[in-house]
Amino acid sequence: MTIYFKNMDIVVPGDIIARGDYKIIEGAYKLGDMIVAEVIGIVYIKDKNIKVVPLEGSYYIPKVGDIIVGKIVDYNPVSWSVDIRAPYLARLEASDYLGRPIDPSRENINRFLDVGDLVIAKVAVTDRSTNPQLVAYGKGLGKITGGKIVYVAPPKIPRILGRNQSMIKMIRDITKADIKVGNNGVIWVKARNKELEELVIGTILKIERESHIPGLTERVREFLVNGMKKLELGDK
Amino acid sequence: MAIERNGVILIDEEGRRSDGRKWDELRPIHIKVGVLRRADGSALVEMGKTKVLASVYGPREIHPRHLALPDKAILRVAYRMATFSVTERKKPQPSRREIELSKVIKEALAPALILDEFPRTAIEVYALVLQADGGTRVASINAAALALADAGIPMKDLVTAIAVGRIGNYIVVDLNDLEDKYGDADMPIAMIPVTDEITLLQMDGTMTPEQFDKCLEAAKRAILEIYDLQKEALRYRYLQIKKELMEEQSK
């Protein structure tokens, strides 16, 4: 039972994190009695649990229950194809967006959503052999208009949300902006004015860049408060 | 005894090589990770005058669709030499050699990757040789492994490669173009250091079994040396951001 890294150190693939009887949560594998990292990430060691939280990866692998921001790329009489920035194209049935059955001979579904529109949806069904199915009917889901979109690496989404969504709550509280975070690394921001939207986007990109350095929440708060002060000065 | 081939002194009286190195000395290695903004992962590796730029895209959708595997991702590798990478302009059309090297590089990298996390997708690696001075395939493997790690693709370990060879009775490590052309044997080797697996072993020329063993041993030592540089380069970017922040805060 030996540990070669400190808690929150940066590990890279092939780094031997520990030897002995540890439980792997994610981001590592067992080789004999060694625990070896398989991605670039930050290692968290707690009791006998080892977790490597990845720092890189621009791909998104859908999981059931994820909230995503997707773009309509195609449609047929009964469903839409949605680009969710994953290697797989997702499908959104018309009834899962409208919340009622649809008769394709009477209604044309591109009245509701057309190619290029953005939707906030939930991953309803997905597995290794079939493409994901979405649901966009319900509270907080559906078509979005206006605002701005910012793309980040999907592994950074938990950092942008923060523990119990604390980080995103703080951004919302300070800027009063409407922010929807997709687990697929797409974030939609709508605020009072353009400058405020830019500030929120700047904050999100700052979190993405500095997520591996402790003291993030305080730095982000400072950045936001300073940014708000500057904007208010500009208003006068 | 100096060794001369085709008018080139490969080993001088003091046992130094054509560029002044000792037999087991590597050329200066420079590695930079994350050099391309639009690629999912990228790395630039310089081994002496050999320069290779590797970029990785994916996992992404496969085209044509029928190539997709239901249980894992496929790995695609394209090794190409830039037209200006060699003394006489190389025709841009992929040559027989480039297609073959793409295949051996793919087979050297694949055992280190955990591909079954991404069924029905493709991971694409492009290794572009910007300047060639011997050992382009091993530099490509070193660069591609880093680009894959930079793209966040889960892997058992990095893959590290080196070319070793023989000139007369001398074993030489990290061959340059002259030694590659006029030497008696050259042997590129790629390894997964953590498991001690060899994923690429080719040889051109002749060696006795003793010379082969000595080559292999020298290659392993060199690989561990490069492996440390690779890991350091991967960490460097994050430590750099941290350093910048510290400086910002101390102002």
Layout of strands and helices, then pairs:
The complex is a heterodimer of chains A (236) and B (251).
Chain A: E1 2-3, E2 10-11, E3 16-19, E4 23-26, E5 28-31, E6 34-37, E7 41-46, E8 49-54, E9 67-75, E10 79-83, E11 90-93, H1 94-98, E12 118-125, E13 133-135, E14 142-144, E15 148-151, H2 157-161, H3 166-175, E16 178-181, E17 186-190, H4 194-210, H5 216-235
Parallel strand pairs in A: 4-8, 11-13
Antiparallel strand pairs in A: 1-3, 2-7, 3-6, 5-6, 7-8, 9-10, 9-12, 10-11, 12-13, 12-14, 15-17, 16-17
Helix pairs in contact in A: 3-5, 4-5
Chain B: E1 3-5, E2 8-11, E3 29-33, E4 41-47, E5 50-61, E6 74-81, H1 96-109, E7 121-131, H2 136-150, E8 160-167, E9 170-173, H3 177-182, E10 185-192, E11 197-201, E12 204-205, H4 209-250
Parallel strand pairs in B: 6-7
Antiparallel strand pairs in B: 1-2, 3-4, 4-5, 5-7, 8-9, 8-10, 10-11, 10-12
Helix pairs in contact in B: 1-2
Reported for the largest beta sheet of chain A, the result is: 5 strands, mixed, barrel
Element-level helix/strand string of chain B: EEEEEEHEHEEHEEEH
CATH fold description of the largest domain in chain A: Ribosomal Protein S8, Chain: A, domain 1
Q: How far is the first residue's CA from the last residue's CA of chain A?
A: 63 Å
**Can you tell me the CATH superfamily of chain B?**
GHMP Kinase, N-terminal domain
Helix percent band of chain B: 25-40%
Number of helices of chain A: 5
CATH architecture of the largest domain in chain A: 2-Layer Sandwich
Beta strand % of chain A:
25-35%
Low-confidence stretches of chain A: none
Strand arrangement across the biggest beta sheet of chain A? 9-10-11-13-12
Main β sheet profile of chain B:
5 strands, mixed
Strand arrangement in the largest pleated sheet of chain B: 3-4-5-7-6
Structural class of chain B: alpha+beta
